[in-house]
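Lab notebook, design round three. We kept the backbone fixed and only want residue identities now. Task for the bench partner: fill in a sequence for the structure below.
Input structure tokens:
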């Protein structure tokens, strides 16, 4: 019975990773208790087989031992119930995971069906797009052929109409030229009549105005002559004043020049004196040097005289420089005054000359106006005395008759032109309608293309969403499968442990029942220890493969020791 349990435990440990859980801790406790129960069960059998001495005696029943045994049974039953509840919960979790797995599979199948339908729709849209593109190409070719035919017909009709229009336009142009010539002649005649009638009225007015203008021009000429005389007198006065100012300026310039010459002469004389004084100083310095070398001047009086002479020379130089600066400033001021006087005189002369020129121009303009008025008077008098007005009236009447005839012809031509324009407009409207219809068909095809493209985009988006959902569902399925595998491994472990605990509980119950019935225990104090050790070895052997951790082994050994002590107490 132990060999299959070992194989199951090995498979469970190899499939599922090790982890600590409350279920495993509980199972370890229960395994220890079941081991103790199995020890209690197998203990008396081994003692009867191995012990050489058989002692038959009745164990005295104490109320404490009788109370402890049912309490342990209750604990074992409680633990078994708890384990059964854990089993139920695990089964429920497995069932829920299986339902989730089934739901995920159903969703995956639904998504696959949707994908298939969407791919079919996508293929249908692509086929429709191809058909639309082919139909568009056919429509474009047909429209192009229709346009070529229409263009040919319209070109032929337009050429015919252009020829007609060219003929009509030439006729119109010639008629219009004749009409314009007649109109010009009529206008000339009318203007001549109007001029002849108005000239008689206006010539008298013009004569009166000319007489007034001549009187006004005479007065203006007299006033201008008076102004000229006044301006000439003012100019002469200004010239006299400017001449006086120029003479004064020249006199001042001469005086300044003479002062400058005098200052230059004084400057030259001073320079000569300075040169002489410098030569004297140099001579005196040489004399002093010689005297110093000879040692005649011991008191130093000539040195003092030399210093005095040097100071006098410096003072003379300073005074000369001051006089020179003053003379240069005086000369510059005189030159500036002379230049300002010249500028003012030139400005006055220029203003007077411009005024004279303006007055001369006004006089010449008035003279030309007088000559023009006299020529106009002569022309008017000649027109009044001309006898060609009656012949002009006859020509005007003939021209009016010709003009009426040409106007009737022009009306007929304009009516024909209107009819031709109406025909052209009608044909243009028909061509525009056909073009609009073709454009509408093209726009419809383009809109259908755009709708198909939009549908394709939506289908592609839906397919992307479905692929994402499928990936998520596959991930969830993988997670659920892993959880299921973990749960199955734990369930296998729990089943093995429950079987072991059940066997241990049954053994303990059999021991307790045998104790309660008052069976004889054939044992020896030394044989109990040996039996305990053998049972502990047998109980530990099936769990050596399942439990690899050192703390679990320690717990199991402690529990086995407690069970051995309990058995010793029960035997006593």
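Proposed sequence:
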């Amino acid at each position: 019975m132990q060999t299959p349990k070992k194989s199951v435990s090995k498979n469970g440990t190899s499939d599922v990773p090790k982890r600590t859980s409350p279920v495993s801790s509980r199972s370890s406790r229960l395994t220890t208790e079941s081991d103790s129960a199995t020890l209690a069960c197998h203990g008396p059998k081994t003692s009867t087989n191995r012990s050489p001495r058989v002692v038959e005696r009745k164990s005295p029943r104490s109320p404490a031992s009788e109370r402890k045994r049912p309490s342990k049974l209750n604990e074992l039953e409680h633990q078994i119930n708890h384990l059964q509840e854990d089993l139920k919960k695990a089964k429920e979790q497995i069932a829920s995971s299986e339902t989730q797995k089934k739901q995920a599979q159903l969703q995956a199948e639904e998504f696959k069906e949707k994908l298939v339908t969407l791919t079919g729709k996508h293929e249908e849209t692509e086929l429709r797009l191809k058909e639309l593109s082919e139909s568009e190409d056919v429509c474009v070719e047909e429209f192009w052929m229709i346009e070529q035919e229409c263009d040919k017909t319209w070109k032929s009709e337009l050429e015919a109409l252009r020829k007609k229009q060219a003929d009509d336009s030439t006729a119109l142009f010639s008629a219009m030229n004749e009409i314009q010539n007649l109109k010009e002649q009529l206008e000339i005649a009318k203007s001549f009549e109007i001029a002849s009638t108005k000239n008689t009225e206006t010539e008298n007015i013009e004569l009166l105005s000319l007489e007034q203008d001549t009187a006004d021009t005479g007065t203006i000429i007299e006033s201008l002559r008076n102004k000229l005389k006044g301006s000439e007198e003012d100019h002469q006065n200004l010239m006299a004043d400017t001449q006086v100012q120029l003479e004064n300026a020249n006199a001042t310039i001469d005086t300044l020049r003479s002062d400058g010459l005098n200052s230059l002469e004084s400057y030259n004389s001073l320079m000569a004196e300075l040169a002489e004084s410098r030569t004297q100083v140099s001579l005196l310095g040489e004399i002093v040097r010689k005297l110093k070398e000879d040692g005649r001047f011991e008191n130093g009086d000539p040195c003092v005289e030399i210093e005095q002479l040097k100071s006098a020379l410096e003072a003379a130089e300073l005074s000369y420089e001051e006089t020179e600066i003053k003379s240069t400033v005086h000369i510059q001021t005189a030159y500036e005054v002379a230049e300002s006087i010249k500028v003012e005189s030139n400005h006055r002369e220029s203003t007077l000359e411009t005024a004279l020129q303006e007055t001369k121009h006004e006089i010449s303009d008035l003279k030309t106006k007088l000559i023009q008025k006299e020529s106009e008077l002569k022309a008017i008098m000649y027109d009044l005395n001309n006898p060609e007005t009656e012949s002009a009236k006859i020509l005007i009447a003939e021209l009016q008759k010709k003009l009426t005839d040409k106007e009737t012809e022009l009306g007929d031509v304009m009516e024909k032109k209107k009819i031709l324009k109406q025909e052209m407009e009608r044909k243009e409207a028909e061509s525009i309608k056909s073009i609009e219809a073709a454009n509408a068909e093209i726009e419809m095809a383009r809109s259908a293309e755009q709708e198909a493209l939009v549908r394709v985009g939506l289908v592609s988006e839906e397919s992307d969403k479905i692929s994402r959902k499928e990936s998520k569902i596959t991930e969830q399925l993988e997670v659920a499968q892993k959880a299921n595998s973990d749960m199955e491994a734990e369930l296998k472990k729990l089943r093995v442990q429950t079987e072991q605990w059940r066997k241990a509980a049954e053994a303990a119950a059999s021991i307790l029942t045998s104790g309660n019935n008052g069976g004889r225990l054939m044992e020896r104090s030394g044989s109990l220890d040996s039996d305990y050790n053998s049972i502990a070895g047998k109980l530990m052997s099936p769990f050596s493969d399942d439990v690899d951790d050192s703390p679990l082994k320690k717990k199991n050994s402690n529990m086995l020791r407690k069970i051995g002590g309990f058995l010793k107490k029960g035997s006593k």
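Keep this in mind before ordering anything: Helices lie at 2-15, 22-50, 63-294, 301-384, 389-517, 525-546, 550-571.
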